[in-house]
Amino acid sequence: MALGSLTMDAGACLVSEEMAQYFLTVDGQPGTYILGDASASSVRAPQVDRNRIFRARLGADTADQGIEQLLLPFRRAAVPVTWYVDGCSRPSDLATRLASHGLELRYVWTGMVRSVDDPEGVEEVPSGVTVVESVSADEREQWMRVVLEGFGLTQFHDMESMLTETGVLSGRWHRLTALQDGTAVGGALLFAGDGVAGLHWLGVPQMFRKHGAGILLTRQALAQAARMGYSHLVLQANLEVVQLYVRLGFDKVGDIAVLDWRPGIGALTVEPD
Asked: Are the C-beta atoms of residues 32 and 26 closer than 8 Å to each other?
């Protein structure tokens, strides 16, 4: 199994911890600040689609009161917020309780884990494609543009600075760009957290798909995570790509419910991970 020595529960909590550290990495995001306490974490951002509550560990007897306290800053400001409920969230019926507090289920991610051992086992290596880490400002901009194109988000210009500047100071964002004959054909983010690494923002534009760029990006992320001393790589996958990651050696370790509270302003666009 790709979990190696991890149990399913331990894998789910590893996914939960990585997601929390990823959300809490806000260097390079002006005007974004962190809220919360030992019971949960939250992030308030100038862009309403990046307000988040996560890593909730609420007591069963006081959970409803805790939910209202965590929602209060967003309710007072009349701004939307997204709440992430994973396998380590507490109480176990948190998603049901959130619905009774006015949140709506948006979609469900699948938490996945793979040991970084033997990254060469990730299918065949595509020919003519190389992967480099994008470090300079120009390289980060190139990475940002190919990732946004891969996700079909080129019209969301407010994401540009977030993608190019986040994690530079902390050193936690490692931007990987797939190149073919000097042209960027895909990108991915390796997040280097404390004790856990994560794969995010793996995107390949439509015209470059089915040529192995995504496979090579995944393989490079695994190899780089191993060199950095991590034992596992985790990710949160949308339903339509779960089977792809299973084929690449990742194990499913549980679902992550993504719920929204909105003050009646219509649908939001939350960045995919």
From this structure: yes
What is the pairing mode between strands 130-134 and 104-115? unpaired
Whole-number pLDDT of residue 110: 98
At residue 270, the pLDDT reads: 41
Q: How do residues 79-127 score in pLDDT, each as one tens digit?
A: 999 999 999 999 999 999 999 999 999 999 999 999 998 766 565 656 6
- pLDDT of 48 reads 77
* Amino acid 13: pLDDT: 95
What's the per-residue H, E or C state across the chain? Answer: CCCCCCCHHHHHHHHHHHHHHHHHCCCCCCCCEEEEECCEEEEECCCHHHCEEECCECCCCCHHHHHHHHHHHHHHHCCCEEEEECCCCECCCHHHHHHHCCCEEEEEEEEEEEECCCHHHCCCCCCCCEEEEECCHHHHHHHHHHHHHHHCCCCCCHHHHHHHHCCCCCCCEEEEEEEECCEEEEEEEEEECCCCEEEEEEECCHHHCCCCHHHHHHHHHHHHHHHCCCCEEEEEECHHHHHHHHHCCCEEEEEEEEEEECCCCCCCCCCCC
Share of the chain above pLDDT 70, in %: 92
Nearest to 219 by CA among 132, 120, 115, 133: 120
Residue type at position 115 = S
Residue 272: is its pLDDT beyond 50? no
